[in-house]
Design brief:
Layout (H helix, E strand, L loop, with lengths): L1 H12 L15 H22 L6 H19 L13
Helix pairs in contact: 1-2, 1-3, 2-3
Length: 88
C-alpha cells in the first residue's frame, strides 16, 4: 500500500496535464511495468520485513513507500547508507 501511495504521488502531479504535454516516459510501457513492479516490491518488503510483528499500520505504509525511493537511489548509482546519522 505504501509503494502505491508513493507512485500515486507521481501520477497525481500530472492529473491536469493534457495528454500531448505529458512527459514521454509517463506514457511508456516500460515506466508502467516498473511502477507496478515497484508497488509489488513495496508490498513484498513490508510483508517480509514486518510479518508477525506488532507494528502500526503507518510503519507498514512507510516501509512500502520507502521501497520505490530505495530503488530510485540504486538506479541512480547512489549507495545506500545504513547509518542513522554521522558523528562530528
Amino acid at each position: 500500500m505504501g509503494a502505491a501511495i508513493a507512485e500515486f504521488a507521481v501520477w497525481f502531479r500530472f492529473r491536469r496535464t493534457p495528454k500531448a504535454d505529458l512527459p514521454e516516459w509517463f506514457t511508456s510501457v516500460r515506466y508502467w511495468i516498473a511502477s507496478v513492479f515497484a508497488i509489488f516490491l513495496g508490498g513484498l518488503f513490508a510483508w517480509a520485513g514486518l510479518e508477525g510483528k506488532d507494528v502500526s499500520v503507518f510503519v507498514v505504509i512507510q516501509v512500502g513507500a520507502s521501497t520505490p525511493l530505495i530503488l530510485q537511489q540504486l538506479a541512480d548509482g547512489g549507495a545506500l547508507s545504513l547509518s542513522a546519522g554521522t558523528s562530528n
